[in-house]
């Protein structure tokens, strides 16, 4: 009989502990970017393996590219949180589209894990954007970069866009990390 009274008390204490460990703002429904603050080593290793494999393939080609999409005079930490999310969403859209292109069978296998990870990140990011500021208008800096991205999509070859996206994959991951840290990104 004493044990039956203890179980509800234990449930209340446990729930209270979880509430203190996870503040309410961190549990916003539809927004879970916490796991992108610190990438697990096997995901980082898969990204590095993919990038290296792509660079090895690229050495055998004669690509001449001028795309400088990822060369910016500003840091994503200078942007507002909604701007950072819009930036990362656009970057992820580009990278995912490039990774979904038909490729050499060995590269197709190498890119599977990074593609799955990045697709999940984009889905999680979109969930946060839908609950955050769904009608946010980008700042001048971001708007200029988005225009540059659109122009590159219209003028650069697909192979150059692919090279730019994959070679700068760790910059995209850093931008994702910054978006995950929200106000604490420095």
UniProtKB/TrEMBL annotation:
<comment type="similarity">
    <text>Belongs to the lambda interferon family.</text>
</comment>
<dbReference type="InterPro" id="IPR038326">
    <property type="entry name" value="IFN-lambda_sf"/>
</dbReference>
<dbReference type="InterPro" id="IPR029177">
    <property type="entry name" value="INF_lambda"/>
</dbReference>
<keyword id="KW-0202">Cytokine</keyword>
<dbReference type="GO" id="GO:0050778">
    <property type="term" value="P:positive regulation of immune response"/>
</dbReference>
<keyword id="KW-0732">Signal</keyword>
<dbReference type="GO" id="GO:0005125">
    <property type="term" value="F:cytokine activity"/>
</dbReference>
<keyword id="KW-0964">Secreted</keyword>
<dbReference type="GO" id="GO:0007259">
    <property type="term" value="P:cell surface receptor signaling pathway via JAK-STAT"/>
</dbReference>
<dbReference type="GO" id="GO:0005615">
    <property type="term" value="C:extracellular space"/>
</dbReference>
<feature type="signal peptide">
    <location>
        <begin position="1"/>
        <end position="19"/>
    </location>
</feature>
<dbReference type="Pfam" id="PF15177">
    <property type="entry name" value="IL28A"/>
</dbReference>
<dbReference type="GO" id="GO:0051607">
    <property type="term" value="P:defense response to virus"/>
</dbReference>
<protein>
    <submittedName>
        <fullName>IFNL3 protein</fullName>
    </submittedName>
</protein>
<keyword id="KW-0051">Antiviral defense</keyword>
<dbReference type="GO" id="GO:0045087">
    <property type="term" value="P:innate immune response"/>
</dbReference>
